[in-house]
Fold:
Amino acid sequence: MGANLGACSNCNVVRPESTIGKALYPMPPGPTVYLTSTGFVTESQWVRFIQVILHRRGALESEDLAASVTREGLVKKYAAELKQLKVLYINDASYHRPTEMMVAGRAGTGKVGDNGNLGRGPGTWLFWDQAIEDLMGVPPENI
Structure:
């Protein structure tokens, strides 16, 4: 990979570094877990998430660390790689909310984020499985 290389400050792993915006962000040298209850709220968060996943799979090209890279561009370029992802999604919110509320939050037939909606339609929420399918192209059978 043609990215700049830097040594991990707390290990002997060498890793590429990303220059998103003007700041330097090291790529994680080990397994990465993203935990959030609300999902990503900006396109740049989605871009970073996809970059890290592709990097961990050894597929990210150094040119795709540029600040001008978009989520749509990454998804289009790496569609074949993203379609191979296997995702474990645990929706613990369903355990402490009424079933009717959860069903209403998952309803809708649009794409996540369309028309300013959080989820797939008016009054819906972001659910990770729907977002990863709609915004990254991961097939539902892989989630």
Confidence is low (pLDDT under 50) at residues 1-15. DSSP finds five helices and three strands in the chain.
